Every structure is written in C-alpha cells, then in structure tokens.
Amino acid sequence: MISKCLFPAAGYGTRFLPVTKAMPKEMLPIVNKPLIQYAVEEAKEANLGHMAIVTGRGKRALEDHFDISYELEKQIAGSSKEYLLDGIRDLIAHCTFSYTRQIEMKGLGHAILTGKQLIGDEPFAVVLADDLCINIDGEGVLSQMVKLYNQFRCSIVAVEEVPKEEISRYGVIEGKMISDDLYTVTNMVEKPSPEEAPSNLAIIGRYILTPDIFKILENTPPGKNGEIQITDALLTQAKQGCVIAYKFKGHRFDCGSAEGFIEATNFCYENFYKKNC
Ligand code: G1P
C-alpha cells in the first residue's frame, strides 16, 4: 500500500520573479487556491494521507497554510465566508504533514533524496505542484497511477506527448508499448535537444517510486545542468528491473510557465470557482 506523497517544493521559481522573491512559487494561486493545495488534494484523492514536503529557505508559508489559524477561525466562524475554508480544513483534519529542508538546490533527484527520512523504506508518490493535473470527468492522475502500481509493483512515470519544439524542457522516455497507454521504459534522457529526443513522450510531474530509488540516487552523479536528475536514477532502475511509463487521462497545465498558468486559471475559474460561488 502506498500511503505517502512527497512534494519537492524548495525551488526558487525564478521564472516568476519578482512575485516569487519572498513568496514560495507553490503558494501562487490558481484563482483562490494555491498550487500546493491542488497537489495535496490530488494525493488525498488517491488515498495518500501522509504529505512529505521538501521545503527550503523562505518557504514557511507552506507550513502555515496546512495549519490552523486560530485568529482567522474565530473571525470567520458563522460568517457567510466560512465555506471558503471547507477544503483546507478537510485536508488539515485528515492528512498529516511533515517537512524537511533542502539546504542546497542540486536538482530534482537531490530534492527527492532529501525526503528519504520522511518516506522511509516504502513505495511513495511524488507530485510536482507546478504541473497541475485535472481529470474533470474521472479520477485524478495520482489515483490512476496508484492503481497501476498495485498491478505492476514498480516505479511509474506519467508521460504525455508534447510538440517537438517543447521537448527539451522535459525528461523524455523511450519505451516498448504494452498497451495503448502503457510502456516499459527502455531509455530516458533529461531535457534532450529535439534531435536527441528518443520520442515525443515527455515525463510530467507525477511519479510512483519504489524505495530502492534512494540508494540509486545516492550513487547517481550530477547530470544535465550539473544537477542530480531523477530521470538518470530512473534509467538505472529501468535497466536493473522495470519502470513503467503511463499516458494518463486528464489535462496537465504547466503552471511553471506564464501561458500554462493563465490557462489553468481560466479553466479553474470556469469549472470550479464560478460553480462554487
Ligand atoms: C523536472 C524533471 C523533468 C520532468 C519535469 C516535469 O524538470 O527533471 O524530467 O519532465 O520536471 O515537469 P523541471 O521542470 O523541474 O526542470
């Protein structure tokens, strides 16, 4: 059973400066809800109750968000705005939150390794909050992946087809097709040029990882951009055993880019915010 979800959230968010100067990028709002809350809600929907967040300097707002504000509770109790707190209250009541700090930014692989003490020796999920995933008519992406894990019992990465000119922003897989939406990974490259890319299947920020990934990460040298890459560690895992790539059902918004952020905002305004107010 998977019960823990890791959220790497130590990055600087330089693409959104200056708003991210004193505010964590994970707290950027899509309408009235921060990105990290969408991510935690997706994990809870997948029946993961333990949220492990890898933070860094200047990220205390994340911890405060998943805690009670007694002053606010007192003010809002019985008022017409109280319903706006329903979602966050539910998360606080039903999930546990633990935090650790990444002292130096040495890549996504390093961030995941920093979370080792919070995860222990069990399979776990990873969610990158700036990839906002919504499956409006069905179960969330993480929930889909947890089901697959129960079937395959190995690491799983979510992938989607992206246009050639965008491929160098992503980790890219090469795989043997098992079925329409499933591949056994045979190769993986972090942020290849369009010429080097082994396919158009890009990894997006949802992973299920088996705990042997930690030992592999400890022995993974810096790769692309001098950073320890989860993509490199997963390739080792694929060669040693098995890694599955899954073309998920739903829509991904790249909220690390201004275009994706605006697109997500419009979508959530129409589909969630307007309907609840
Ligand atoms: C990270 C991973 C990359 C993956 C991407 C998904 O890159 O290194 O393999 O495709 O997330 O969003 P980043 O966006 O942190 O540069």
TrEMBL record:
Q: Which residues form the Nucleotidyl transferase domain?
A: 9-268
Q: Which InterPro entries match?
A: GalU_uridylyltTrfase_bac/arc, NTP_transferase_dom, Nucleotide-diphossugar_trans
- For the keyword Ribonucleoprotein, the answer is no
In its UniProt record, a GO molecular function of this protein is: UTP:glucose-1-phosphate uridylyltransferase activity
Q: Which GO terms describe its biological process?
A: UDP-alpha-D-glucose metabolic process
Asked whether the UniProt record includes Transferase among its keywords, one would answer yes
EC number, UniProt record: 2.7.7.9
**Keywords for this entry?**
Nucleotidyltransferase, Transferase
What does the similarity note say?
Belongs to the UDPGP type 2 family.
Query: What is this protein for, i.e. what is its function?
Result: May play a role in stationary phase survival.
Query: What name goes with this protein?
Result: UTP--glucose-1-phosphate uridylyltransferase
Natural source organism: Entomomonas moraniae
